[in-house]
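Feature request disguised as a bug: please show the residue count (118) next to MBL fold metallo-hydrolase in the output. Example input:
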Amino acid sequence: MSGLKNYIRTLETEFQETNDEKVEVQISLLKEIKRSLPTLRLTLPTVTFQNMYTFEGSKRSATLMTKGGGHSPCDSFLYLPNDKVIFMGDLLFVKSHPSIFEDSDVDNWIQTLQELIM
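Example output, currently without the count:
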């Protein structure tokens, strides 16, 4: 919490100097996280999967998949086959430059995206 508070103060100083709207939005988001952290409870998963896991509901199915790490080592996505909708999280960046980290696997990331296009 102290690191988060210090980071917010640093951003507030930056905002005072620059009046940058993006910094203001980031401050707002981080303050909301700071407010909610004390009420959060760590809950371990009750279901895990290796490559694919399908949920069967009363109206549709949903498939949770991974092709290994791309943007980050734990990348996964959710596909609704009947609706032909996919939720890709931080595997897909639209109208912005993707963040690449030390543990990103860019080659696998590109391969995953190419497979999902088809």
